[in-house]
């Protein structure tokens, strides 16, 4: 896992879900529902301006009693979010996300959004890494031809 890069090892061929700062919270909620996602990047062109997540909408819009049809993303987004470069490792992303309690982290190059990694993406990497480690240790301890079925026969 330490050597897996965010792009292309963790995410690749990603279709970014972006909206401009002048879009409404309703626009973001509709896009999230259509694409079954939990976060939208707020961009002007490809330039990353912020991120809006389901959590943001719950805390900053619903709990605050704001109207999603008139509330602009620019007023509820997390502006200038932390980002990582595509060459960053999965471990770097996991560390940053854990320290700051993020579930989504934009990937950017020179201020331009190129991707977004989620905690779910990183969970899949960790799981694969742990499964590989387990197989490697079993092969070392019991020999490369070891399997539970072979010992039953």
From TrEMBL:
Residues 10-68, 77-133 form the CBS domain. SMART domains: CBS (SM00116). It comes from the Bacteria. Keywords: CBS domain. InterPro entries: CBS_dom (IPR000644), CBS_dom_sf (IPR046342), Diverse_CBS-Domain (IPR051257). This is CBS domain-containing protein. It comes from Azospirillum melinis. The lineage of its organism: Bacteria, Pseudomonadati, Pseudomonadota, Alphaproteobacteria, Rhodospirillales.
């Amino acid at each position: 896992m330490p050597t897996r890069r965010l792009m292309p090892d963790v995410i690749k061929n990603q279709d970014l879900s972006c909206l401009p700062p002048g879009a409404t919270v309703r626009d973001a909620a509709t896009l999230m529902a259509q694409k079954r996602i939990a976060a939208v990047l707020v961009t002007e062109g490809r330039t990353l301006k912020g991120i809006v997540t389901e959590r943001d909408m719950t805390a900053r819009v619903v709990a605050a009693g704001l109207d999603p049809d008139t509330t602009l993303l620019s007023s509820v987004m997390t502006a200038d979010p932390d980002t990582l470069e595509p060459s960053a490792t999965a471990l770097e992303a996991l560390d940053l996300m854990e320290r700051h309690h993020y579930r989504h982290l934009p990937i950017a190059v020179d201020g331009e959004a190129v991707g977004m990694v989620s905690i779910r993406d990183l969970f899949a990497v960790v799981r694969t890494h742990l499964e590989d480690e387990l197989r490697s240790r079993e092969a070392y301890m019991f020999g490369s031809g070891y399997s539970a079925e072979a010992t039953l026969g």
